[in-house]
Amino acid sequence: MKMFWGNKIKTNLERRIVVPSLVIIIVTVLGCMLVPEKANAYLSGMKNYIFNEFSWVYILSVAFFLIFLVILSVGTLGDIRLGDDDEEPEFSFFSWVAMLFAAGMGIGLMYFGVAEPILHYAVPLHSSATPAIQEQEAMMNTLFHWGIHAWAIYGIIALSLAYFGFRYRLPLTIRSGFYPILKKDINGFWGDLIDIIALCATIFGLTTTLGYGALQLNAGLQSVTGYHDTSFTPIAVLIVIAVTMAIISAISGVGKGIRLLSQGNLIIAGILMLFVLFTGPTVYVLSAFSQNIGYYLSHLVELSFRTFAYDTTHKDWFTSWTIVYWAWWISWAPFVGLFIAKISRGRTVREFVMCVLVVPTVFNILWMTIFGNSAIWLDGHHGGVLSVLAGQTEQMLFQFLQLLPWPLLTSILALVIIAIFFITSADSGIFVINSIASYGKTKFPRWQSILWGGLMALLAIVLLYSGGLAALQTMNIVMALPFALIMIILSFCLLKGMIVDNSYFSRDLTKGTSYWTGEHWQERLGTIVATMDRNELLRFMDTTVRSAFTEIEKELTQYDITALVRENLKDDTPYIELVIKKETLRDFVYGVTCVEKAISRLVVDNPSFPTVDTPHTLEPICYFSDGRRGHSVKYMRKEELITDVLRQYERYVKMASDVHHSLYLYDKE
């Protein structure tokens, strides 16, 4: 419990972040609501200026993000784990990938899977080309916009936050990525400012998504039911229902609510995709899938750096498609990146990069091929029935399904998929907003989820009704340029932190002594064959660990070095640690705590292991000044533990003497 806005309410919101953010949001929304035309005109002018003068910045930035991640993953830095060195992933691979889709592009694939290929084909980039080339270019441009570059943008933010959050034990917020530059000042003004910008951008982006997502759902319902209501009421009701369900899911917890919805919806979407494949022009689509991959990969470098500098006649197409997409992905990066970081703990950097870049990209290519190529084929065989809907993109998917068997059933299925993607995006957004607003916390009082969900729904309804949503969307795109520059800085901060991490923790220990010479082997054998319960663990820490640390502490006083032994053996996670104080550097800490480890039932039930009779054991694990767990000290006697402490301290002293490692040893408190 703590005081918040003068009342004693259970909350973990940070007033320094929330209050300025709410002021900015209210002022901006009032401007978009009261004078939407003026606001939109002003923001559109800014957008056009940025797009005309700085389009090359977007192109180079996004290309840089992709190249940076690939290089990062193929080197030794790719072995670094986002968490402790022995930590297992929190979610299964299938659950992880499913949540990536739900948070990132799920609803966009439903909306643009048919619409974008048809729009590119109906208004081709090169009108003089043959229909076959126009179709191929339409698919290539679609895949380019929904391919690996979009996930590189998300990946930069997600990897930066996951790395500094899980390796450096910093809060899971945008500010943490600036630790190599700001160090302990991330807790001050600049850190607050970064999180305020991130919070506002996230709320603005989610609000516009709620508004336009509701329009799409409304169009789908009207297409399915045949009932056309031109009033605003159905849209407002859809927003309220969707956000209410998102709040319920958010309250149930990210590990339960989003995971179950995401897994179920991915399966349903897969069923719809296979239905379209096998009831449409199957052989043609499968052949197109192979050719689309080859055409996309063979033109990837050219597309990555394409600015139409020598072809000004296509500048409008370039800015209204590619640049808008890049700006939109960048503006969504804080939201999607924070969520991906939260669900990616325990993955290695290489696994993270390869999966985040490759798996969703392959799926997107498959999805866009099945829906896009099928739509173009059916459009050509039905007199351009889809091309005429170029101004009504929200209806294209449902019109497309009318050209296949069982249109009513598949349209209802599509509506369910869109609704669940809509809900899971809002659900993920509520979690991310809570995390930013509470300085990286991961558990929140229920009323906070209700507050943020209700605020987004209210803003979406008010702005949609007043006509100010377009202005808010434009402002969100304008904000993408400075945020792209921030992401570049984050990339170099990430690289610096990982280089120091790899150098510090891969340095070989001095080989002056060995841990075990073979003495007291009977005692060691007894430790190997038995499990350790809490009483045995406490006995080990009380005798061996405390005795070793006390002797070292006493010896250090002869060298005028301040050291102390801290302990808490009554806590659920007991610990004892030796702290050697340093004035300007991070204190040297060698601690021992307990970790519960599961034992396979094959071992517990096996009579060949008569001393193992429980499915869990406790193990004393050492940890260091950054909070990272090290190795087990279960088999060490007092003298061996003293040796290990001194070897770690020797490495610390050598590293402190090396100016290249000042970042890791700098006191972050």
From TrEMBL:
The answer, when asked if Membrane is one of the entry's keywords, is: yes
Checking Pfam families in the record gives:
BCCT (PF02028)
What is the annotated localization of this protein? Answer: Cell membrane
Q: Mind telling me which residue stretches traverse the membrane in this protein?
A: 17-36, 56-79, 91-114, 148-166, 193-215, 235-254, 266-289, 323-341, 353-378, 412-437, 449-471, 477-495
Q: From which residue to which does any coiled coil extend?
A: none
Q: Which InterPro entries match?
A: BCCT_CS, BCCT_transptr
Alphabetically list the UniProt keywords.
Cell membrane, Membrane, Transmembrane, Transmembrane helix, Transport
Its protein name is BCCT family transporter
Q: Which PANTHER family match?
A: HIGH-AFFINITY CHOLINE TRANSPORT PROTEIN, HIGH-AFFINITY CHOLINE TRANSPORT PROTEIN-RELATED
Topology class, membrane: Multi-pass membrane protein
**Which family does the similarity line name?**
Belongs to the BCCT transporter (TC 2.A.15) family.
- Lineage of the source organism? Bacteria, Bacillati, Bacillota, Negativicutes, Veillonellales
